[in-house]
Design a protein that fits this description.
The chain is an all-alpha fold and 450 residues long. It is 76% helix and 1% strand. The relative contact order is 0.14. The protein contains 17 helices and 2 strands. It has helices at 11-52, 70-93, 99-116, 125-153, 159-186, 195-213, 215-220, 236-250, 255-285, 290-318, 320-340, 346-372, 380-393, 396-409, 412-418, 420-431, 435-442; strands at residues 58-60, 63-65.
Length: 450
């Protein structure tokens, strides 16, 4: 049996098998990202911190903090720490053929810490905070390695389709488990559990889901030998730092990739801020109940499944860059529409939610596959670590603008509208990206549609 070109070329079959396994990396980790990080951890941590508070304050490393602010500090610390750690993770991953093992190791470590959140009871908010920080850090590291596998298991022409299906799997898996946990928490008393136990069981289920389903890609993805590894001496950490320094020094040689990264920082920050602020906007500005907004969250998740696949097909017909730009135009329409949604009027809110679902998965999935075209062979994990590290390192910009505009106007409507600036800036920078030139600079093959 041969894998050379011709009648005996089995490479497409091997890639298809790996791709089907890789889809489950998004399916697995999304359970943690939605059920734990997205919905349940923050409000439950606040309740635990309140139990330990004295005069509505807890002591955090000598600082007096209100329990309601604790999740923001925990998530911010985890985010900034990840921005420092991920580049090293990428450098280590690019020096080994065992990327699936590394990805799975991070996933299992993160799932273990997420599962230990089940024991966050009483007033032990310190324990819960530390476990979440580690779990969140491991989740991001697993995603860095997972994303770096994408160029290894797909050709340039397959990249958009594979990335889009992966995002769709993520939304479907995360949404499915969240729906089950939503029912369990909602009907906790009828089930004889109580809300606190239902929340803890939900977080435990996300950990088990994550740890269990990551076995599928671990078993199906081959161990690809690293390419173009830098000749640096020392132990594994020293060699990885050496490789990272070489990559950073060479990065200016790929100006198109840098331009796209800058564009991504702006428009992705806008996307993340809309997503993270949607619940606050719906409850505080539009007057909906928290349960209604959770239902809207689930609607967005499931619409995003079709949206990701739809955008992947559009990219195959019209080119990835054009479709991403179209998606950013859609985001601009969404924030304008959200500004005009009347209070306690459900139908317009549902229309906005469906719009978010359609463009959310598509723009993020295509951004991932588009960026992969600008990565030189052998640098996949390092470049994706910079992709995620820069994303997390600047993820406070959108929320800062949102908060400042609200503080100045005392209304969330101009705050949500102000986010249009991120899509305008990101789209303007993306329009400057010369796709063909960037792909050629990286030494990759230009796909039929880009």
């Amino acid at each position: 049996m041969t894998t050379s070109a011709g009648i005996g070329d089995f490479r497409p079959v091997e890639r298809a098998r790996e791709q089907k396994g890789w889809f489950f990396t998004d399916w697995a980790v999304s359970a943690f990202q939605t059920t734990v990080a997205g919905v349940l951890f923050a409000p439950y941590l606040i309740e635990i911190a309140k139990a330990a508070a004295v005069d509505n304050r807890i002591d955090v490393l000598g600082l007096s903090i209100a329990p309601g602010a604790l999740p923001s500090y925990v998530i911010t610390f985890s985010t900034l720490l990840s921005a420092l750690v991920y580049p090293l993770v990428g450098a280590i991953a690019d020096r080994t053929s065992r990327k699936p093992d590394l990805m799975t190791g991070f996933a299992w470590a993160g799932a273990l810490c997420a599962g230990l959140l089940f024991f966050m009871t009483g007033d032990n908010w310190w324990f819960g905070s530390i476990m979440f920080i580690i779990a969140n850090l491991c989740a991001g590291a697993a995603v860095v390695v997972s994303d770096s596998i994408l160029p290894l298991i797909s050709t340039e022409n397959e990249r958009d389709r594979v990335s889009s299906i992966g995002w769709a799997y993520g939304y479907a898996g995360g949404g499915l488990l969240l729906a089950v946990n939503f029912l369990m928490v909602t009907f906790a008393d009828q089930l004889g559990l109580g809300t606190a136990l239902a929340v803890r069981l939900s977080m435990l289920s996300a950990a088990l889901w994550w740890a269990g389903f990551v076995i599928i890609p671990w078993r199906r993805i081959r161990r690809h030998e690293p390419a173009d590894v830098e000749d640096v001496s020392g132990g594994v950490v020293a060699r990885s730092f050496g490789q990272l320094f070489v990559t950073l020094r060479e990065l200016p040689q790929y100006p198109v990739a840098l331009t796209f990264l800058l564009a991504y920082l702006f428009f992705n920050d806008g996307i993340q801020t809309v997503i993270s602020s949607a619940s606050t906007y719906g409850v505080e500005e539009l007057g909906f109940e928290t349960g209604t907004m959770l239902g809207i969250y689930l609607l967005v998740q499931f619409v995003a499944v079709g949206g990701a696949i739809f955008f992947g097909r559009l990219a195959n017909s019209f080119g990835t860059k054009r479709v991403i730009l179209g998606g950013l135009g859609g985001w601009m329409v969404i924030v304008v529409a959200a500004y005009f949604v009347p209070e306690q009027t459900l139908l317009p809110l549902l229309v906005v939610a469906v719009g978010i679902g359609l463009v959310m998965g598509g723009t993020q999935a295509l951004a991932r596959s588009y960026f992969s075209l600008f990565i030189p062979a052998g640098k996949e994990a390092e470049y994706f670590s910079l992709y995620h590290a820069m994303d997390r390192g600047t993820s406070w910009l959108g929320t800062l603008v949102f908060g400042l505009v609200y503080q100045l106007t005392d209304s969330y409507r101009p705050a949500i509208l102000a986010l249009i600036a991120f899509f305008v800036l990101g789209g303007g920078l993306l329009a400057l990206v010369n796709t063909t030139k960037g792909i050629e600079q990286a030494g990759n093959r230009v796909p039929d549609r880009a």
